[in-house]
Write a structure and sequence with these properties.
homodimer; 294 residues; alpha/beta; Rossmann fold; 6-phosphogluconate dehydrogenase C-terminal fold; 2 domains; 3-stranded mixed beta sheet; 9 strands; 50% helix; 12% strand; elongated
């Protein structure tokens, strides 16, 4: 499959894809493109020499560039796959030589701030930038953990605004589809609000639950604790950045969670069996709904 | 392997094992005994006619008894595999005809109250009762979900007291070992305290996290929420019983959890990046310790 159909891109035979940031996400995207997309030449860049060497040695990309600007300047599509904290400097590095037609997307877990940053820093107020959040990943990180199998079948949220070119949205949609992701459209604000609940809250709670454990409790724990806290293995720097970037929504979700946790404690101490059962039943009902979607 | 060695049980060639309660746990134990233990005749009883029929039809046990008392009266070892709420009536049903030498154990997730109940209701103040908590299970329930593969390699906590016969402890230890469980000894109080943190807290938090979700958030959720909330599928009746039976310890853990959740919300709202990162790092550090034990 080639994600540039001649319908919106007549002149290019081989698509030039640039991936800036060759970690778990960028590397997995490169491997998935390798596996599923024909006629696509992948340029890659990472500020880490180790990641660049590995990408070159294992032929994860076709060509390793020496700078972000260089990686971007010849591309039809650029995927910024760095943590959010690096995005500003990447935008600044690629903006001067960015061809007018080049489409830019990203993979960040929060969307409001990066969409704003793109309008401020990219040419034409970021009309060719389409925010993306491909919903795959793992508690691991780095190019060594990259795996094309992580990608297929996952959702990818796209967050175009009224200013975004429709052709850019079509191209980014087609790109994610070409590697097996299912595109869903949403506004940046709506994305950050629902993701606070669906993704950032589980991440924070799994980590707090793990930090509450002791040597004695871990010694007797079973599969329940193990599965419930898998996310606690994630990169704390990356996640501190995400939680702070989406501060308002996440703080609200955490407060809600703290309140209902304290309420359950009260019911348990009061011996309110019906209340405790109702509370557990509400969770089980939602769990059944979640499972029926899978 | 036969778990009755002649060292402590000279006269019986074939061990008579009674399992009262043929649900996920009792059924899995029966299947594991079938697979790993020679010279063991399994008697089973469940108050549900459906469970009894299934156990008979699928030959999960050798003989299905018509009452708990009948199931117990000829046994060398009795495993009470019912929920905690049914334990009192089981003790009352088996006590009158319980042979002096018969050893009784259970599988309940809390131990203080069942150990007390056994001393009050079984002959000789429960000297031949050894509380057990085999640490396997699943969010599913019922004999249809029974699976011998759930059992092997898991821990089994035994909670004898000063009053418990040493020979009974040895027999119960040997029994769990014979089906691949690793026995660990602990006092009933210590068990309930550490399990509140290691097992009951994850159960409660996974369920609350799930109940906080909405249609919109579930629509965009990924593997993170799915894995973190697996336990929310568990039986609410069973778990309400466990949480209330271990009320003091669990309420304390839940309060601690509510406090640290609120504290993280405060740090996020205050933009305290170092504090947020420290909090996430504490969880990651414990997660690494947990993984190194597996």
């Amino acid at each position: 499959m080639c994600f540039f159909t001649h319908q919106y891109y007549r002149t290019v035979q081989t698509t030039r894809l640039s991936i800036i940031g060759l970690g778990l996400i960028g590397g997995s995207i490169a491997l998935a493109v390798r596996r599923s997309v024909k006629h696509c030449k992948i340029y890659g860049y990472d500020k880490s020499l180790l990641a660049r060497s590995r990408a070159r040695r294992e032929k994860i990309v076709d060509h390793v560039a020496s700078s972000a600007g260089h990686c971007a300047s010849q591309a039809d599509l650029i995927v910024i796959a760095t943590p959010l904290g690096a995005a500003r400097s990447i935008f600044e590095a690629i903006a001067p030589d960015l061809p007018d037609e080049t489409v830019v997307t990203d993979v960040c877990s929060t969307k409001r701030s990066i969409v704003d940053m793109a309008s401020a820093l990219l040419p034409n107020r970021g009309r060719r930038f389409v925010g993306s959040h491909p919903m795959f990943g793992s508690e691991r990180s780095g190019i060594a953990a990259a795996d094309s199998a992580l990608v297929a079948g996952c959702r990818c949220i796209l967050t175009p605004t009224r200013q975004t070119d429709a052709s850019a949205v079509r191209m980014v949609k087609a790109f994610w589809r070409s590697i097996g992701l299912n595109p869903v459209l949403m506004s940046p604000g709506e994305h950050d609000r629902v993701l606070a609940k669906a993704s950032h809250l589980p991440q924070a709670l799994a980590t707090l639950l793990m930090s509450q454990q002791t040597s004695a409790s871990m010694k007797v724990s079973g599969k329940g604790l193990f599965d419930t806290t898998r996310l606690a293995g994630s990169n704390p720097h990356l996640w501190a950045e995400i939680l702070l970037d989406n501060a308002e929504h996440i703080a609200a979700e955490l407060r809600r969670s703290a309140k209902q946790t304290a309420r359950l404690a009260d019911m348990i101490r009061a011996g309110d069996e019906a209340g405790v059962r109702r509370s557990l039943q509400a969770g089980r009902k939602n769990r059944a709904r979640l499972e029926s979607r899978v």
